[in-house]
Amino acid sequence: xxxxxxNRTAWDKQVENENQWTLPVSAEVIEAARQGNWDVLLTPSKxxxxxxxxxxxxxxxxxxxxxxxxxxxxxxxxxxxxxxxxNAPKQLEQDRSVAERESLVIKTVEGDMADLSMFANSSxxxxxxxxSNIFVPDVNPVWAEAFRILRPGGALLSGFMNPxxxxxxxxxxxxxxxx
Length: 179
Description:
Blueprint (H helix, E strand, L loop, with lengths): L2 H14 L10 H8 L25 E5 L6 H7 L3 E6 L2 H14 L3 E5 L13 E6 L10 H10 E9 L11 H7 L3
Parallel strand pairs: 1-2, 1-4, 2-3, 4-5
């Protein structure tokens, strides 16, 4: 099985189905970010603590495997220079849509998170990486590439999921509240 093709197709389908991780942020969220009141999610329910972020105004930020019109637009509105990198064209379209709607500058790049060769060494001050590592067969190349493109003193903020979640039927649990 070609994992990259499978994931691209699956996430494009998730955009069509309006999965929560494919729904772009609202104009109100962008306006608040422009005023300095912003947060981002890397996991389903708890925003990343502000003190974990380096200064974002003027920072070069890579939203790695982070398309969907959420983290990238918020950080761009907060003053960062944002590149959103994702495998799914429809996820990247969500970011471009918010950028156009809100007059934001966001660069979008389609590709495999384990191959960031299009970026020079030490290109980014911050890498935002939501729960995406579960979609690669080997996470080591992802981390090696992230390390290579992160500037010395930069930050990598990544979300993770407990693999025990996959022992249960998520839809059934959400419907019944029972594992």
